[in-house]
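Example 3.
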Amino acid sequence: MQALAEAAGKFVFFIGLIVLNIAAILTWVERKQSAVMQDRIGANRATIFGIRMLGMFHMLADMLKLFTKEFFIPMGARRFVYLLAPMISLLFALVGFAAIPFGDTLILGGREIPLQIANVNIGILYIFAVLGMAVYGVVLGAWASNNNYALLGGLRASAQMLSYEVAIGVSLVGVIMVYQTVDLMEIARAQGQLLWGWLPQWGILLQPLGFLIFMTAGIAETKRIPFDAPEGESEIVGYFIEYSGMGFGMYFLTDFLETILIASLTVTFFLGGFQVPYLYADGFHFPWGQAILLPNIAVAALQFLSFLIKLIVLLFIMMAIRWTLPRFRYDQIMHLGWKILLPASLINILITAVVLTIIG
Amino acid sequence: MQEILFFVLAAVAVLSALGMLLNKNPVYSVLLLIVTLFSIAGLYVLLNASFIAAVHLIVYAGAIMVLFLFVIMLLDIRADVEHINLKRLSRILALLATFIFLGETFLIIWMSLKGKAAFVGLGEGILGDVPSVGELLFTKYLLPFEIASVLLLVAIVGAIILAKRKLRPEPPAA
């Protein structure tokens, strides 16, 4: 019972308070960052009693708009599946966060609480399964809309997502080989160790090629520009064309949640997870011999903060990519996925295996 | 707790499998089959076989069922399609499958009564983790593992040849 309450508490805190709020802020960042990059002023109309806060209130305005708009079910749509599809999309974008370690253990009143919602010992495989399910929300929504443009968009989306899942899967094999485990918590912990006594063993240093492949394939998996052929809102339209109101809202939120999920996974696998360099369970131990001892709660807070900062930096980079690159043509997307990323990730496995054999 | 979960999952698995068979609309059949696969994965987790559960979901629910859905949606199979030509053959096959299934069930019950088979209780299994599965695959079951990979390779090559053949006669685009 206590374990259940603990899991529920962690769920409310990590997903309800952190992840969903970051997703909401991202909708504002997307508009404001694009405005800055394109030399515009950007969202600044929404005010509450004359307070603008850089247009932050547009998040609330958007939410109110989506909730109050009519949810229209088109003629000939398969009602049940049409209603179900956006929920499936949202569900599988959210459950992925259950396996993300936001920090090491926190000791609260004599209880050791791992800062991870569910300790899945098959971590990476769980993530693959969750990412694989993301296709269903898209395909079902496209099919249930009874619209040929939506169906074509859904087909483009599923072909793209299936193709890039292969690259994601193979690029993580290198990570598994280096850290000898598929448990996300263990991978994050292993990155706290030092190489040659001073260099933190982060994934980006041990698996630079794997990092690039994972990031690229991950961005493709979120179906955002430059890989937005499935939706192409400005001209070719996509799988959620028939959705209005909160139906569209859920797909919209799913996009941002998937971006956060991919960024969290990249942080966990390649940017040291929650690790702060030279910070151990009892405080800092610098390689030159100095030590600053810290209580457990400070260590846990620092780790959580470090995870959040890495996540936000990575999200900012992903947003910048989204506003920098034009959309790839569909054949270019397939070419990149199958003929460049997949062979590159296989080569990455080969190099990793050779290096590991030589080292020991 | 585990018993309750087992019965819920088992009931969902059986009911959704029945629904898959009885449903007229092929897309709903695929969806119900996915529900079945999920509940079976849940049963694997109850047996501590989380590795098999995950692989089961990745391969069947994540890849194969998506392709099923693809084909059904693209071909737009009518809900009331009639299998007149297949009826006879499918009856024979159905009878055969039923007999095999009944035989297997009988065999399992008989073996468990005689105490010849070892069964794993809920939450007692040990085939869960990745290292033990990997070690078995590369030592005890190396030959079957390699044969399976060669088989998959043949299938991949075959798929590429089938896909390429139609493109060849066409002249390159100007």
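The domain at 1-84 of chain B is CATH 1.20.120.1200 (Four Helix Bundle (Hemerythrin (Met), subunit A)). Chain B touches chain A at residues 27, 31, 34, 50-51, 54-55, 57-58, 61-63, 66, 69-70, 73-74, 128-130 (CB under 8 Å).
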